[in-house]
């Protein structure tokens, strides 16, 4: 399969020209009618414009990703406000256009088409759930629409998408697990059992954690995939081997409360070390009684939900701008918990778009190729207001950012960072090269 | 059934297809792309209507047939060098075979039991796709490789990234489906199907083999649905498990109910209206599915036979 993936990085053809279209139509119909009028799609002439730069935000307002989408949208609005307050991009204001994709791949593809042909945006960004990204990416590539996702999926970095797809604002799961595996095996144990959803976001963990653990001399002793429709986990828990040192879990969605409750009932006070991805409890209050069993366990966090003692000035600034308090909740409603560990990716993606458009001297859709090349030319991001999560390395070939990861321990109803990985910890050999594809 | 009525029916359907052909010259870009998808989904709904509208069998698992075509074609194109045209045919064959097997089992039941059995088979199909994630990538799905987007066929270069080609291919498939269904439902088989829908024991008593006829209807329905799935995967370059979920079975039912069950053009009309209802409502509110739901409830209350069903009942009794 990897060979197939590599082959696909050579995928270049997708041009729609008036000439080829008319020739095709002529062959198909033999009708002279098309010599005077052309089908709608080929009347494609993006006008040079002095209007705002339009950015299409493909948002999970509804569906399984809605709790993320709500916060991603708030972050996008906050970032765009700052960009516009500072004069916009290349002297042009930024207009944010939001479309709901329902966290559905079919609708996601339709939304990308809508952005490209109805709203005529300059770029699309913000998609999180990987099945929506994979469903929409082909259309983005064929419509030559820059598509900057905030997904964590390895679909971009592995080279399975196309030249128009980027992930500059958040690291991918492969990088995350690669960088954390040494800490897990050194501090928690070498025998790992995985429980993960048999669903899009579970696969990257399933595929990448075992080799990362093995590289550290450890072993994934059992992999328990749970169907996404499952509402009770009691029949899966006995499959956890008794010699498990570390239980590695990722269980996104409302089932997480049941999962943790049943896990507590299963183990009682005797349990292995537990390591999870914060994805499971993003937008969920850790003070929820059913989550008490998680006390003393560990989580991956892209950006720490709770303000830390050594909080950077950038985190402070970003937190204020997006309206989040020191506990990771909305300032307007302490019960409204943010998706803090992930949503910085939207912020950083928007400032990356600004950086690349300025670097390319972007003036309109005719400069999309320059914009893509400017994105690919980026080598690093310095920590700062635009990148509050931390500095990053950007690989222009596989269009993926690499950065620091945080491992946090649950202490009561908050989490404290106990380890922050280096960027190098998460690097791996990159085989994909989108720059070989034509623009 | 007079010759003039036949001519009127043919003229109407030719006019609809001609309108769909001509409208591409004036449609704005987005609607042009959207209509391509809608036509493919309309084929799926027309296949569904064959079973539900004409035979009276309500399936809640029809997405499995759509997915059989989607995966049969998509995985062939992804993993083999057989080429897109052959992949398309394999997708259709997968749907035909699956519908034959499902039909032999599910048609031993009727009514609510048939709904439940088809729903369970549909769920099995969905979980099968997610079970073999090493090959299908499950929910995340697969994007079609470059070789399935640009290829040569019978000396012609086919570029499936070309929106014009996609639109007209979708239209051609829709036209074929429409006339196949028209011929079937206006022929002897169609009359037996309607007889089964209205009163199966009486049809049986009249000497018709209702099981065999229903099986035929299910195979035709499943094969057409699979053709839509195969076309969808190949035209839009993506296959994923969500297309096998119950949501997509329900969608076909809603398209059919909205446009008019038991009318040839109803599913097409329902697909168009449903797409735009969601598309427009989602621009104004995140509760667009609620808006759509309310609209459907009102429709069922005041136009229980759907739009074209009501039109046929009140004004155009000759509408097939």
Automatic annotation (TrEMBL), chain A:
GO terms for biological process: amino acid transport. Keywords: Amino-acid transport, Membrane, Signal, Transmembrane, Transmembrane helix, Transport. The chain crosses the membrane at residues 21-42. It comes from the Bacteria. Residues 52-410 form the Leucine-binding protein domain. This is Amino acid/amide ABC transporter substrate-binding protein (HAAT family). Residues 1-21 are annotated as: Disordered. The keyword rRNA-binding does not apply. Belongs to the leucine-binding protein family. Residues 1-13 have a biased composition (Basic and acidic residues). The keyword Transmembrane applies.
From TrEMBL, chain B:
The keyword Aminoacyl-tRNA synthetase does not apply. InterPro entries: ABC_transp_permease, LivM-like. It is a multi-pass membrane protein. The chain crosses the membrane at residues 7-26, 32-51, 63-80, 86-105, 112-132, 169-194, 215-240, 252-276, 288-311. Pfam families: BPD_transp_2. This is Amino acid/amide ABC transporter membrane protein 2 (HAAT family). It is found in: Cell membrane. Keywords: Cell membrane, Membrane, Transmembrane, Transmembrane helix. Its main location: membrane. GO terms for molecular function: branched-chain amino acid transmembrane transporter activity. One of its GO terms (cellular component) is plasma membrane.
């Amino acid at each position: 399969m990897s060979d197939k993936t590599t082959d696909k990085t050579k995928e270049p053809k997708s041009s729609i020209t008036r000439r080829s279209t008319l020739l095709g139509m002529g062959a198909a119909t033999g009708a002279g009618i098309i010599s005077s009028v052309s089908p709608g799609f080929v009347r494609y002439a993006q006008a040079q414009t002095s209007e705002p730069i339009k950015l299409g935000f493909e948002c999970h307002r509804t569906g399984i990703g809605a709790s993320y989408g709500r916060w991603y949208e708030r972050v996008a609005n906050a970032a765009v406000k700052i960009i516009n307050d500072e004069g916009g991009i290349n002297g042009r204001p930024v207009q944010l256009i939001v479309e709901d994709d329902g966290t559905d791949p079919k609708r996601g593809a339709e939304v990308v088409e809508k952005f490209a042909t109805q709203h005529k945006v300059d770029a699309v960004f913000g998609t999180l759930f990987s099945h929506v990204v994979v469903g929409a990416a082909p259309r983005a590539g064929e419509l030559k629409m820059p598509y900057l996702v905030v997904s964590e999926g390895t679909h971009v970095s592995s080279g399975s998408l196309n030249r128009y797809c980027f992930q500059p604002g958040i690291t991918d799961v492969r990088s995350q697990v690669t960088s954390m595996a040494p800490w897990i095996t050194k501090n928690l144990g070498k025998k790992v059992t995985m429980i993960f959803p048999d669903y899009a976001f579970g696969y990257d963990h399933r595929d990448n954690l075992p080799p990362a653990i093995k590289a550290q001399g450890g072993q994934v002793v059992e992999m328990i995939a749970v169907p996404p429709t499952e509402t009770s986990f009691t029949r899966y828990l006995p499959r956890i081997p008794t010699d498990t040192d570390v239980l590695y879990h990722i269980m996104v969605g409302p089932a997480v409360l049941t999962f943790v409750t049943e896990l507590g009932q299963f183990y009682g006070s005797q349990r292995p070390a537990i390591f999870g991805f914060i994805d499971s409890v993003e937008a969920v209050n850790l003070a929820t009684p059913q989550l008490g069993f998680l006390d003393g366990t560990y989580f991956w966090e892209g950006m720490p939900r709770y303000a830390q003692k050594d909080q950077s000035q950038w985190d402070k600034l970003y937190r204020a701008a997006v309206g989040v308090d020191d506990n990771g909740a909305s300032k307007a409603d302490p019960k409204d918990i943010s998706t803090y560990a992930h949503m910085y990716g939207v912020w950083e993606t928007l400032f990356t778009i600004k950086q690349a458009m300025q670097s390319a001297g972007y003036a309109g859709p005719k400069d999309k190729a320059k914009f893509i090349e400017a994105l690919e030319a980026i080598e690093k991001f310095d920590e700062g207001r635009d990148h509050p999560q931390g500095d990053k390395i950007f690989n222009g070939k596989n269009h993926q950012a690499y950065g620091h990861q945080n491992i946090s321990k649950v202490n009561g109803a908050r989490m404290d960072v106990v380890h922050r990985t280096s960027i190098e910890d998460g690097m791996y050999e990159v085989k994909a090269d989108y720059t070989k594809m034509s623009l | 059934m007079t010759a003039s009525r036949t001519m009127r029916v043919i003229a109407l359907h030719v006019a609809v297809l001609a309108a769909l052909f001509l409208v591409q010259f004036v449609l704005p870009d987005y609607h042009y792309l959207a209509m391509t998808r809608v036509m493919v989904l309309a084929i799926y709904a027309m296949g569904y209507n064959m079973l539900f509208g004409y035979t009276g069998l309500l399936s809640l698992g029809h997405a499995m047939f759509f997915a059989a075509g989607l995966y049969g074609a998509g995985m062939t194109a992804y993993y083999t060098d057989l080429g897109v045209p052959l992949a398309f045919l394999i997708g259709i064959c997968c749907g035909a075979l699956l519908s034959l097997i499902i039909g032999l089992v599910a048609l031993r039941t009727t009514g609510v039991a048939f709904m439940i059995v088809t729903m369970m088979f549909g769920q099995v199909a969905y979980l099968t796709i997610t079970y073999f994630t090493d090959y299908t990538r499950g929910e995340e799905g697969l994007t079609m490789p470059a070789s399935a987007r640009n290829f040569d066929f019978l000396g012609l270069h086919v570029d499936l990234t070309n929106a014009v080609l996609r639109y007209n291919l979708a239209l051609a498939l829709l036209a074929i489906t429409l006339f196949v269904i028209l011929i079937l439902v206006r022929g002897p088989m169609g009359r037996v199907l309607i007889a089964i829908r209205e009163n199966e024991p009486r049809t049986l008593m009249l000497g018709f083999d209702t099981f065999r006829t229903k099986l035929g209807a299910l195979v035709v329905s499943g094969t057409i649905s699979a053709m839509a799935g195969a076309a969808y995967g190949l035209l839009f370059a993506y296959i994923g498990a969500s297309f096998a979920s119950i949501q997509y079975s329900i969608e076909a039912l809603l398209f059919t109910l909205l446009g008019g069950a038991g009318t040839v053009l109803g599913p097409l009309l329902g697909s168009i209206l449903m797409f735009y209802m969601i598309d427009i409502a989602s621009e104004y509110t995140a509760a667009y599915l609620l808006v759509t739901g309310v609209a459907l409830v009102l429709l069922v209350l005041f136009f229980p036979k759907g739009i074209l069903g009501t039109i046929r009942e009140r004004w155009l009794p000759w509408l097939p």
